[in-house]
Known about the structure:
It comes from Microbacterium oxydans. Its EC number is 1.14.13.149. By secondary structure, this protein is mostly helical. It has one domain: Ferritin (Up-down Bundle). Helix content is 64%, strand content 2%. It contains 14 helices and 2 strands; from the N terminus they run H-H-H-H-H-H-H-H-H-H-E-E-H-H-H-H. A two-stranded antiparallel sheet has the order 1-2. The longest helix is centred in the middle third of the chain and has 29 residues. It is globular. The C terminus is likely disordered. The structure holds fe (ii) ion (2 copies). The site of one fe (ii) ion has 5 residues, from helix 6 and helix 7.
Amino acid sequence: MTSPADLSLVEGEISEDERMFDELIANEQRIEPRDWMPDAYRKTLIRQISQHAHSEIIGMQPEGNWITRAPSLKRKAILMAKVQDEAGHGLYLYSAAQTLGITRDEMMDQLISGKAKYSSIFNYPTPTWADMGAIGWLVDGAAIVNQVPLCRASYGPYGRAMVRVCKEESFHQRQGFEILLSLMQGSDEQRQMAQDAVNRWYWPSLAMFGPPDEQSPNSAQSMKWKIKRFSNDDLRQRFVGMLVPQAEILGVTLPDPDLRLDEETDRYVIGEIDWDEFFEVLRGNGPCNAERLERRRTAHENGAWVREAAAEYARKQARAWDPEPAETAGSLSLSKGA
Ligand SMILES: [Fe+2]
Ligand SMILES: [Fe+2]
């Protein structure tokens, strides 16, 4: 992405393009697809947005697993709407990533070949109905805390996609909370089921914010570029601060005996997160990694005919709208090829 003018630059000097980029960032303005941007900024965004898209798509599976077994028609309708929202989030995000010069096919290949990463939390199983409640409350809750600041991300298409995504995440979090609330008002067995699900999802949801600040080397650059606005630990604090009063209303216990508010610093003291487990799951060794990927791969293969039909339809539409007059169309179509 070097323009001819850059060749005359002395080492240490910045180009006019770079100066404009820095100025837009400094003034809280947005970088748009056609603007010049440093290669590292583009690469970081492609990685982040595509991983985010993959997480939304893989994230449909742990809950999709319960659509046929939801306890009532109303619960089923709500869960279906929620899972469809996640598909929509994936699609907005793939579109946003495409504006940076990567194709949908490339991203899909990276996902189904196992090369791409996605949020590690979706590699955990959902053995009970209460897991639907815990995922909504904790996983979508963590997603909101992470994503609300992303509405102000410096890259325009990403920030704008996040606005709608966050509105939907807020519905997801409430539906999860409400599932847990109903269970907590039920029988002893139902209360236990809700507590067990919270115990399963609490720690992985805290890990969703990523490693502690001192072990997160890319964060500083992302904050400088105003993609990221708050550090991993600050976001984690905000999340725990949101959960504590809600857990009280629910009547569930957060499974961390060390958890307390330090009055002096006004920050929560949080027990030790098992980062070894986090990195193991990230490396592909979680309880459901293979299953999630296999399912995605099969769905992709089964959808081949839909993609072919859509491409053929688009070709036909393009021909129907060809503005060339009818009498010359024959010769033109020869020179234009397929
Ligand atoms: Fe989502
Ligand atoms: Fe969600």
